[in-house]
């Protein structure tokens, strides 16, 4: 049986991936969405995030770890830690092969410094953009509320942190692109020989179009397996 662990970005929460997880489970796939976030508790530091996340992982024999957005870096870290069967970047930044790994690239860090702070804390992620990240999404009010309600509050200093990336290059790798934002990353993945599945959607596709996202993940898993056999 195919086993999949979905890793959400620290900028949002598990509700951003739960719709896709529900579709995967309905198709007979063992799937989990672990998270170190706890209600009314301060989120862990970036350095501690993978440690806390590993403690929340379900008991699976040979999972494929799928990391969405910033969760792609966490997926690579976990894949190296637990010798996973594979790793998929879901509209995510390409992880470094090893070494100190910060949550965002320097250019994006500079953008964060332009945002208004309240006692050192950034506004919630959905307020960083000029347009509603869920604008036009065909989702229920309950789902929208769930997605927005578990977005954590992070201080600007949270992004100064780093964790050490273990070697994970031997793990099977794939890429699912859902938005234009990660066109270049998908091209890099393809150039490196990763199977790539491309969708024409938005960054929050796992929440707004779970059927399409789930199918893309399944296809990418199959392509990874076929590439290994070739």
Automatic annotation (TrEMBL):
Residues 41-216 form the AB hydrolase-1 domain. This is AB hydrolase-1 domain-containing protein. The lineage of its organism: Bacteria, Pseudomonadati, Pseudomonadota, Alphaproteobacteria, Hyphomicrobiales. It comes from Candidatus Phaeomarinibacter ectocarpi. InterPro entries: AB_hydrolase_1 (IPR000073), AB_hydrolase_fold (IPR029058). Pfam families: Abhydrolase_6. Coiled coil: none annotated.
């Amino acid at each position: 049986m195919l086993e999949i662990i979905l890793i959400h970005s620290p900028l949002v929460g598990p509700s951003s991936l739960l719709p896709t997880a529900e579709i995967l489970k309905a198709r007979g796939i063992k799937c989990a969405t672990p998270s170190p976030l706890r209600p009314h508790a301060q989120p862990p530091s970036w350095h501690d995030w993978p440690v806390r996340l590993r403690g929340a992982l379900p008991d699976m024999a040979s999972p494929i770890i799928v990391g969405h957005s910033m969760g792609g870096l966490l997926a690579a870290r976990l894949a190296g830690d637990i010798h996973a069967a594979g790793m998929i970047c879901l509209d995510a930044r390409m992880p470094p092969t090893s070494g100190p790994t910060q949550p965002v690239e320097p250019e994006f860090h500079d953008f964060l410094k332009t945002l208004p702070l309240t006692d050192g804390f950034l506004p919630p992620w959905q307020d960083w953009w000029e347009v509603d990240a869920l604008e036009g999404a065909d989702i229920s009010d309950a789902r929208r509320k769930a997605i927005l309600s578990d977005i954590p509050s992070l201080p600007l200093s949270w992004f100064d942190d780093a964790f050490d990336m273990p070697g994970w290059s031997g793990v099977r790798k794939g890429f699912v692109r859902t938005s234009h934002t990660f066109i270049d990353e998908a091209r890099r993945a393809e150039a490196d020989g990763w199977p790539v599945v491309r969708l024409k959607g938005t960054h929050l596709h796992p929440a707004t179009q779970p059927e399409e996202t789930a199918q893309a993940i399944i296809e990418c898993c199959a392509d990874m397996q076929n590439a290994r056999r070739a």
